[in-house]
Specification:
The complex is a heterodimer of chains A (223) and B (403).
Chain A (H helix, E strand, L loop, with lengths): L1 H41 L1 H10 L11 H19 L2 H6 L5 H34 L2 H30 L3 H16 L14 H9 L2 H13 L4
Helix pairs in contact in A: 1-2, 1-3, 1-5, 3-6, 5-6, 5-9, 6-7, 6-8, 6-9
Chain B lengths: L1 H28 L7 E5 L4 E7 L5 E5 L4 E2 L1 H7 L5 H6 L6 E2 L2 E2 L2 H7 L1 E5 L1 H4 L7 E3 L14 E5 L4 E5 L4 E3 H13 L9 E3 L11 E4 L5 E7 L2 E7 L7 E6 L7 E7 L3 E6 L4 E7 L6 E6 L3 E7 L3 E8 L5 E8 L8 H4 L3 E3 L11 E3 L6 H17 L5 H10 L1 H10 L4
Antiparallel strand pairs in B: 1-2, 2-3, 3-4, 5-6, 7-20, 8-9, 9-10, 10-11, 12-13, 13-14, 14-15, 16-17, 17-18, 18-19, 20-21, 21-22, 22-23, 24-25
The chains are: A mainly alpha (223), B alpha+beta (403).
């Protein structure tokens, strides 16, 4: 059954995932080329100096990418289910409802994790040739809240999509905007170091909202 | 599961509202806060200030209540306004018995600004090493950086990202010979070429002993600095001012400013300063340093003698008390994720206010009444509203089912 659920999700999202893969690869290549060009023209020592003396980490253009990816993945995965009223059928299949919800969520979180990790590993692989471990860590630690925002965006979109009442849906959207804003509060590198663990757990705990919305959906809650 | 989802929803709503509502309130009620610009005058031996009144006029005055026009104000602060005085031909040739000219004034003038944000942030523990005695006049861009380990320094060639074992050994050996116990404790340097000269780094070892380390003609220069018993280094700041009279400022563990002069003598001043939560501004000239230590409550001014670093005068400007704000009657506490004093993001709960309890009580009663009309008695919700006030009342009312 798990395989069937994953296959169903794959059918729904494959073209979106392909497009997202192209965007992620393009962004990664663009940033690698950008940093590579700076090294070519100004030397690696100049980049070290910029990293050590200014609040810059060179990969800032990627900061909203995981969030947008997570949000659109939620939309692609769950809007058709709700609009075409397939979700009700899905929840009536002979399979535990929380398990069904979690498997669909796991698929999305897995896709998010694979793309985020692949991009982070690509950055690490490139940067560690030119920069000391401290500088590579400086850049990647700065980027962690941006990737955490991807998980928050995905789970909150999921909760909004399956929520049956417009009043609650509006509140979830407002909450989502506030929660996502928390990931982009300061442009100072490594500013989230002490908070990123708790923030990530809080982001993942948004799955409780999804489960709540799912129960409300099943109960037929309305405004 | 539904219960956990409900708890998450209300917890997130309370945190977000406790963050955004006080922020919105502050945004709507913010008023410009300006304080007089103040310097110590070597002519009238008093603090002289200028401020702008409600009509936009500039008012010049000193602490004794004397008022000045702009030309008089330039005259009582000749070290600061020397170019204006020179252009008007009003510059004296001697002051306090010392012959002065523009070059001498310029050579001795400096200003420093240090904010808590300069210290309270996470930086990579790598330090670029400049050549302090380059072959050409101008400083050259650094080519190496070093890190500190328990065994010694590790120099890395920045262009090739490779370890320079020979230089690492050379610096480590010299530093150990001079009594340095690795790893580095506190360290400060200013590895930029946009300055007149380079003094490398001032740093403490793992036992708190102070050292001056720089690179001269590719070789290590290491000097141990003996500290008075009363000086325990908390933070350091290398100065590199044009007159080369000082090497560094030491911020001590007992929150005082000490000055390390170019001859490695340490002068503990009367300036009280906590670098983690106060900002420091120093405007120095050949006679006095005007030191301003500011935090959210007050500005403390000190005038130091530029030769002896003794305090010759001091005064305090307390900001107008704006604590009678409506916000404390509305918000039982506030959440902030950022602060002007640091470069870190994490939730900080502050400004707990018992004055918000009456509103909490009112809202709790209102909610209890609404619930009772619907035939429900929700004591737990009522209790939460009493404690968390408006932050929990808003989401509760918004999702309450209407009859």
């Amino acid at each position: 059954m798990n395989k069937a659920i994953f296959f169903k999700e794959w059918i729904k999202t494959r073209w979106y995932l392909l497009a997202a893969l192209v965007v992620f690869v393009s962004y990664t290549l663009y940033l690698v080329l950008r940093v590579g060009n700076a090294i070519e023209f100004k030397g690696a020592a100049h980049l070290w100096a910029v990293l050590l003396t200014r609040d810059a980490v060179f990969i800032e253009p990627v900061q909203y990418l995981p969030m947008v990816f997570g949000l659109l993945l939620g939309v692609v995965q769950f809007v058709p289910e709700v609009v075409q009223k397939r979700l009700k059928l899905t929840l009536h299949l002979p399979y535990p409802q929380p398990g069904m919800v979690l498997m669909m969520m796991l698929y999305g979180l897995g896709a998010l994790t694979v793309l985020s990790l692949a991009q982070l590993v690509a950055f690490w692989g490139f940067l560690q040739h030119y920069m000391a471990a401290e500088l590579t860590a400086h850049i990647l630690l700065t980027a962690l809240p941006w990737y955490a925002a991807g998980y928050a965006a995905y789970l909150l979109t999921y909760a909004v999509c399956v929520e049956p009442s417009w009043r609650m849906r509006s509140l979830l959207i407002l909450m989502g905007i506030g929660l996502l804003r928390v990931h982009f509060l300061l442009d100072v590198p490594q500013s989230y170091n002490s908070f990123i663990g708790s923030l990530f757990v809080f982001d993942l705990a948004a799955l409780l909202l999804v489960l709540r919305s799912m129960v409300r959906f099943k109960e037929g809650c309305q405004d | 599961m539904k219960l956990f989802g409900k708890i998450y929803f209300y917890a997130a709503a309370v945190v977000l509202l406790a963050w955004l509502l006080p922020w919105l309130y502050a945004l709507c009620t913010a008023e410009p806060k300006s304080t007089p610009f103040t310097l110590y005058s070597c002519v009238v031996d008093d603090f002289a200030s200028l401020t702008v009144d409600d009509d936009g006029r500039i008012i010049y005055f000193d602490r004794k209540g004397h008022h000045y026009n702009d030309a008089q104000f330039d005259s009582i602060l000749p070290m600061f306004y020397y170019r204006q005085l020179l252009s008007e031909g009003r510059m004296p040739d001697t002051l306090r018995g010392v012959a002065i000219d523009a070059d001498k004034i310029q050579h001795n003038n400096f200003n420093v600004r240090l904010s808590p944000l300069d210290i309270n942030k996470t930086l990579p523990k790598l330090y670029m090493m400049l050549e302090s005695m380059p072959k050409r006049v101008d400083l050259e861009e650094p080519v190496e950086a070093f890190r500190s380990t328990a065994e010694g320094l590790e120099f890395i060639d920045m262009e090739s990202n490779t370890l320079n074992a020979a230089r690492s050994r050379e610096f480590t050996d010299v530093m150990k010979r001079k009594g340095f116990v690795f790893p580095i404790g506190r360290i400060h340097g200013n590895p930029t070429t946009m300055k007149g000269y380079d003094e490398g780094y001032v740093m403490t070892d793992s036992h708190g002993a102070l050292f001056h380390v720089k690179q001269i003609s590719g070789k290590p220069y290491v000097r141990a600095v003996s500290l008075p018993d009363s000086v325990k280094v908390e933070q350091l700041m290398i100065t590199e001012f044009p007159n080369r009279r000082t090497l560094a400022y030491i911020f001590t563990a007992d929150n005082r400013l000490a000055i390390l002069d170019a001859d490695y003598n340490v002068h503990k001043t009367g300036v009280s300063f906590n670098p983690y939560r106060q900002s420091l501004t120093i405007v120095g000239d050949m006679f006095h340093y005007t030191v301003k230590v500011a935090d959210e409550k007050e500005e403390h001014y000190y005038a130091l003698d530029a030769s002896t670093y003794a305090t010759v005068d001091q005064m305090v400007n307390r900001y107008a008390d704006d604590s009678a704000s409506w916000s404390e009657y509305v918000f039982p506490f506030k959440v902030a994720f950022t602060s002007y004093n640091d470069g870190w993001v994490y939730p900080r709960v502050s400004d707990f206010s018992a004055k918000a309890l009456p509103l909490g009580l009112l809202l709790a009663a209102l909610l209890f009444f609404l619930d009772r009309r619907q035939g429900k008695k929700k004591y737990l919700e009522t209790l939460f509203v009493l404690l968390l006030g408006i932050y929990i009342f808003i989401p509760l009312v918004l999702i309450k089912k209407r009859n």
